[in-house]
């Protein structure tokens, strides 16, 4: 049966994690995998999550199936978090999914079901799984100019020119905040320009929101996508609770679609979900719903999230200073948002960091600043300065 299988494609992030695990050097440093770590190097269960889980274990009345839309209270919470507490979500269909990964695939299948020849435009560079998921649904993927690696800034003119060329068969996939892998976010003026072009040209905006609260704060991080949501009659959104609720392995996410045909869209999403995973796992979604329904748990969660955000900002600042002290301009680290930035390093320099210094980065130079212990910043800066010399 399986002798004709071609070997599996290598995932550039998971392969770094595997190589790191296999490395026996005790001083090894993992800046690869995209999880938040505290000062002790742990990815903690957030206190509000722990508390909600205990309440749930004590009082959950049943583990019977949920419906195809998953946890409805969770879906309302996601709408309020992403669109705003007061926003009118009546034009949106929201369904819970197994993580944002599940939402990406569901939405890709929806696009393919309604316009098979649609092209999905992703940023250069983008999240490693964007192109594979879109392509697995049969969609064509194109890349738009985004990051200028040398300066860590937006290639604004080229980016806006690419968007200006999009039409009715095009889907523009944007990162809601804390762009993965670059940390480079759009300004509010950029979001406004995209909204104006979407209205005039009829392309479909599609926002992936995986790091709300990791950039400038919960509300601020959603400001850009809310400009699109207010202006555009149709829009796609996928949402992850992996990072800001620390629910990674609980696979907690949502797919949202704004359209003039909500009943049609809802029915098709249900059909697509039914013949795939059928229903999403409930545990993480119920935890989120419980946290958002309780003033105490919500305040506790927000305070812990804010502390995580400030810790990442401090890491950014310290690494930028340490690199500057070694003659490497790195102010872009202070401008970027969230867990990731990209160091402008060649493939050979990244390999040297791994082989000579046991420092692991993702191909392309992405580092996870939340994986960086303060006590090791000077050591990292020294190593980067050494491999940067030509
Ligand atoms: N989108 C982006 C931009 C991501 O970085 C990730 C992974 N962190 C995902 C989607 C997938 O997230 P999830 O764990 O919810 O599947």
From TrEMBL:
Its cofactor is pyridoxal 5'-phosphate. Keywords: Aminotransferase, Pyridoxal phosphate, Transferase. Pfam families: Aminotran_1_2 (PF00155). It comes from the Bacteria. Residues 27-384 form the Aminotransferase class I/classII large domain. One of its GO terms (molecular function) is transaminase activity. CDD domains: AAT_like. InterPro entries: Aminotransferase_I/II_large (IPR004839), Asp_trans (IPR000796), PyrdxlP-dep_Trfase (IPR015424), PyrdxlP-dep_Trfase_major (IPR015421), PyrdxlP-dep_Trfase_small (IPR015422). Homodimer. Belongs to the class-I pyridoxal-phosphate-dependent aminotransferase family. NCBIfam families: PRK09257.1. This is Putative 8-amino-7-oxononanoate synthase.
């Amino acid at each position: 049966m399986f002798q004709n299988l071609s070997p599996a494609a290598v995932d550039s992030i998971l392969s770094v994690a595997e190589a790191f695990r296999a490395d026996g050097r005790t001083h090894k440093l993992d800046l690869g995998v995209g999880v938040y770590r505290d000062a002790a190097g742990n990815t903690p269960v957030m206190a509000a999550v722990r508390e909600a889980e205990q309440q749930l274990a004590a009082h959950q009345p049943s583990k019977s199936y949920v419906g195809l839309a998953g946890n409805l209270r969770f879906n309302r919470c996601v709408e309020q978090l992403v669109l705003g507490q007061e926003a009118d979500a009546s034009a949106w269909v929201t369904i819970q999914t197994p993580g944002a990964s599940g939402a990406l695939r569901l939405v890709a299948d929806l696009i393919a079901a309604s316009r098979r020849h649609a092209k999905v435009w992703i940023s250069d560079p983008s999240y490693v799984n964007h192109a594979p998921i879109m392509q697995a649904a049969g969609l064509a993927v194109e890349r738009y100019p985004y990051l200028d690696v040398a300066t860590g800034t937006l290639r604004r003119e080229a980016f806006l020119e690419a968007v200006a060329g999009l039409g009715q068969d095009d889907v523009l996939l944007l990162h809601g905040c804390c762009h993965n892998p670059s940390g480079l976010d759009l300004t509010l003026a950029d979001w406004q320009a995209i909204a104006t072009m979407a209205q005039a040209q009829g392309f479909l905006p599609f926002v992936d929101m995986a790091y709300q609260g990791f950039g400038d704060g919960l509300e601020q991080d959603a400001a850009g996508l809310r400009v699109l949501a207010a202006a555009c009659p149709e829009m796609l959104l996928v949402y992850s609770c992996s990072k800001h609720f620390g629910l990674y392995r609980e696979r907690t996410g949502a797919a949202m679609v704004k359209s003039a045909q909500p009943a049609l869209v809802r029915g098709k999403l249900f059909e697509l979900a039914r013949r795939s995973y059928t229903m999403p796992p409930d545990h993480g979604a119920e935890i989120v719903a419980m946290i958002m329904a309780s003033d105490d748990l919500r305040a506790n969660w927000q305070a812990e999230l804010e502390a995580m955000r400030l810790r990442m900002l401090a890491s950014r600042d310290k690494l930028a200073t340490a690199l500057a002290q070694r003659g490497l301009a790195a102010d872009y680290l202070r401008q970027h948002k969230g867990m990731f930035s990209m160091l402008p390093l060649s493939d050979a320099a990244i390999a040297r960091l791994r082989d000579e210094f046991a420092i692991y980065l993702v191909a392309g130079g992405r580092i996870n600043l939340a994986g960086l212990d303060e006590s090791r910043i000077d050591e990292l800066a020294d190593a980067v300065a050494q491999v940067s010399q030509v």
